[in-house]
Amino acid sequence: MSERIVVGAALLDGGRLLAARRSAPVELAGRWELPGGKVEPGETAEAALVRELREELGVDAEAGGRVPGEWPLKPPYVLHVWTARLRPGSPAPEALEDHDDLRWLGPGEIWDVDWLDQDVPAVRQTLAHLGGLDADAGEVSGA
Fold first, then answer.
1. Which residues on neighbouring strands pair with residue 130, listed in sequence order?
2. CA distances, 40 to each of 13, 51, 114 (Å)
3. What total of structural domains would you count in the chain?
4. Are 104 and 112 a contacting pair, CB within 8 Å?
5. Interacting residues of 28 by C-beta distance below 8 A, sequence separation 6+
6. How many alpha carbons fall within 13 Å on the CB side of residue 101?
7. What start and end residues bound the annotated signal peptide (predicted)?
8. pLDDT at position 140
9. What's the predicted TM-score (pTM) here?
10. Which of 81, 86, 94, 108 can bridge 90 by disulfide, Cβ–Cβ 3.0-4.6 Å?
11. CA torsion angle for 23, 26, 30, 36 (degrees, to 10)?
């Protein structure tokens, strides 16, 4: 079986990163992740990211650049992260579908939530890509 891509959104607003708390499935409930979802056959990763953010959070967003790296999920899936921003006039994100809470995390708050294990290295790489991560303090610098 070939690898399937899941896109995660590093949705940014004013130097803050959006985290979404899972409500389902039961084994993931209460843990935090970058919102996103599966790339469908014939769909680009950027289009999937925009579609998933609309479906999951009710927002109109635009994809930015891909964060270098990929992170294994449950086979055959692999996570790719893209930066994203809300389009002007987009409604505020809402916890819909598989999430029961959303939180904008600023510098110094990134590690205040219980990230899904597979999202931790992706979040670290995303923060490093955006301007640096002080691994000892767990804070974003220059973002």
1. none
2. 27, 10, 28
3. 1
4. no
5. 22, 116
6. 10
7. none
8. 34
9. 0.87
10. 86
11. -50
**Side chain identity at 73, as an amino acid letter?**
L
Alpha helices for the chain (secondary structure H): 45-57, 119-130
Q: How many CB atoms are located within 10 Å of the residue 46 CB?
A: 17
* Residue with token string 């959303």: 102
Whether the bond into 121 is cis, omega within 30 of 0: no
Is the pLDDT at 70 greater than 90? The verdict is: yes
Q: Which two tokens stand for residue 139?
A: 């804070």
Four-point Cα dihedral 123, 47, 102, 65, nearest 10: 30
Backbone angles phi, psi at 99, to 5 degrees: -125, 145
pLDDT digits (tens, 9 = 90+) for 81-96: 999 999 999 999 998 8
Q: State the CATH number of the domain containing residue 115.
A: 3.90.79.10
- Is residue 122 predicted with pLDDT exceeding 50? yes
pLDDT tens-place string over residues 49-66: 999 999 999 999 999 999
Confidence of residue 69 (pLDDT cuts 50, 70, 90): very high
Domain that holds residue 92: 4-140
